[in-house]
Amino acid sequence: MVDAIGPDGVLVLSYGLEISLDQIRMDLDELARRPRGAHLGEIPGSLLLDDLPEQWVTHYDYEFVYRFRCTIERLRLRAVHDLGWDGTGGYVRSVADDIALYIVMETGAGAVGLVHEENETEVEHDWLDWYYQLNGEDDRTVPALYSSLPYLKADALFIREGSDLHFDRWFNDDDALLPFL
Fold first, then answer.
1. Are residues 145 and 53 in contact, defined by beta-carbon separation less than 8 angstroms?
2. How far apart are CA 44 and CA 69, in angstroms?
3. For a tag site, which of 37, 56, 165, 173 has the least CB within 10 Å?
4. Is residue 114 part of a domain?
């Protein structure tokens, strides 16, 4: 992996994985104290909520957040053990993987920028390139769900039921050969 995204990219990925998992643990703790059916939109200060597409806020309940945490744990296992990644993309296998990797890389870039100020500008610029290197250049999930174009805001998009990007399909695994990783 270092060959593909370099030491700074690996540092961003590592920081992002750990910080994201910590934030999710806090959200899970808070959701566990609430009645079944509670969602992240009801938790003041949920950092994960700020990173997820707004269209499905009421779907981000305990079960979803737990499953999303497992998704990030699988990304960490793949990174640590170089499992299922050939260096040419394809590190992600589902929309949930894609969203998780995007959140992890963005979170990691912010953390590395704060801790290692000498790399701040480079990391802020390069994290998205590292994300695409891990994910493959033909990714369409992030542009569709996280568009920063002023005329195409992500919250102005509506993903229709049946779309590959719809919430109901986020955890569909594209690789039946490695179902646990």
1. yes
2. 19
3. 37
4. yes
Provide CB contacts within 8 A for 91, sequence distance 6+. Answer: 75, 78, 84, 85, 97, 101, 134, 135, 136
Question: Mean per-residue pLDDT for 39-53?
Answer: 93
Mean pLDDT, the chain, whole residue set = 81
Share of the chain above pLDDT 70, in %: 76
Per-residue confidence (pLDDT) for residue 148, from 0 to 100? 55
Rg (CA), the chain: 16
CA 140 to chain centre: 14
> Does pLDDT of 60 surpass 70?
yes
Q: Has residue 27 been placed in a domain?
A: yes
Does a structural domain hold residue 179?
no
With vertex at residue 178, the alpha carbon angle to CA 174 and CA 179, rounded to the nearest 5 degrees, is: 75
> Residue 35's domain spans which residues?
2-169
pTM of structure? 0.84
Q: What is the domain count for the chain? A: 1
